[in-house]
Amino acid sequence: xxxxxxxxxxxxxxxxxxxxxxxxxxxxxxxxxxxxxxxxxxxxxxxxxxxxxxxxxxxxxxxxxxxxxxxxxxxxxxxxxxxxxxxxxxxxxxxxxxxxxxxxxxxxxxxxxxxxxxxxxxxxxxxxxxxxxxxxxxxxxxxxxxxxxxxxxxxxxxxxxxxxxxxxxxxxxxxxxxxxxxxxxxxxxxx
Length: 191
Prior knowledge:
seven-stranded mixed β-sheet, Rossmann fold, disordered N terminus, 7 strands, alpha/beta
């Protein structure tokens, strides 16, 4: 697959291969509705648009989305959508940037249709590299003071905590995929 972000204007905000891995895990057809939040520079949203699916995308800084059309979405607040409208919600490298992951998971639950699919990617703070960094410095890889200032990584979430939040909000784990130091969670909304 050609990487649409080879052009510098796209500066991807996820590790190489993350967008492709998420796309590979989706069964796409024209009547699927997808919410991509946060969309960042729009790399993944553009990939979805190129697949001719209906995608709604937004970010707290919609002006940094170079493909245009991004909506203002603050994931710390209620999502600006009616309930039960999206088949799929993708949150790629976003949950670690917000103050309250419980709130956004409840909002994802609300906007997803029954049996909808939620895909979350986040830095894996339980890998060996991150554990050694924590042992030596007291901070996780991607969550030290420099990264917080530069990337606003404010909320490291270990798998067991994220799994707990998702299950308490009505989701169940369908599968876990990995790509380097990232993990992907696929949750379906319970009937």
